[in-house]
Every structure is written in C-alpha cells, then in structure tokens.
C-alpha cells in the first residue's frame, strides 16, 4: 500500500535513507516514517498511523449508479473488515490509495 502511495522510486529512496541511517543502530517505527518523508511525501506518518493503529482493514465497495437523466456516477462505500466477523462502529476511516502499476526503472 505504501509503495503504491509513494511510487516505487520515492519508496526505495526513503528505504535507502532509513537503512543508511540506522545500519548499526536501533530504530522505532517513527524513524521509518521520518525517513520516508525525506523524499518529499509529507504525511507518511499520518497515513501509516491510520493503517497500523486500527484493527481490521478496509473493504471498499464500488457501484455504478445510473440516474434517470441518463448520467452515471460512482458510489463508493468503505467498511471495516474484522477477521472474527464482528462489526466495528466508530474509529477513523482508512486512507486508501488507488491501486496502480508502475513500469519504470528506479536508479538510486
């Protein structure tokens, strides 16, 4: 998810920064987010906190809505999925990026 959000080149550059800085040292999760943010993506920590501090994961439902006037729109609904099948009320929604593929070579 984070790889798609940042793009492969920026993601790899951020990881390289992180590995170089903490090669022989202890690190915290915050240190990884900070290193990834050095690439110019400003809200990595905020986005990833939503993913790593909440239970479950998002299920996105998309449907095509055909209006009487002949126009179309897309309806998008986000729900939290929990493995035990229970429903979860409250909490923040997940930050979800679009899924895409990249066919670029990243040179560092």
From TrEMBL:
For this entry, list what GO says about its biological process. Answer: peptide catabolic process; proteolysis
* One family name in Pfam for this protein: Peptidase_M1
InterPro entries in alphabetical order = Peptidase_M1_aminopeptidases, Peptidase_M1_dom, Peptidase_M4/M1_CTD_sf
Q: Name one GO cellular component term.
A: extracellular space
Q: Name one GO molecular function term.
A: peptide binding
Where would I find the Peptidase M1 membrane alanine aminopeptidase domain in this sequence?
A: 1-51
Q: What sections of the protein cross the membrane?
A: none
- Name of this chain's protein: Peptidase_M1 domain-containing protein
* Species of the source: Hydatigena taeniaeformis
């Amino acid at each position: 998810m984070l790889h798609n959000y940042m793009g492969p080149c920026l993601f790899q550059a951020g990881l390289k920064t992180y590995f170089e800085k903490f090669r022989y040292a202890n690190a915290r999760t915050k240190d990884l987010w900070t290193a990834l943010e050095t690439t110019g993506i400003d809200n990595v920590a905020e986005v990833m906190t939503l993913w790593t501090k909440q239970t479950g994961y998002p299920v996105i439902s998309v449907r095509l809505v055909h209006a009487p006037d002949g126009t179309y729109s897309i309806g998008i609904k986000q729900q939290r999925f929990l493995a035990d099948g229970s429903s979860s009320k409250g909490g923040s929604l997940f930050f979800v990026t679009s899924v895409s593929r990249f066919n670029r070579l990243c040179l560092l």
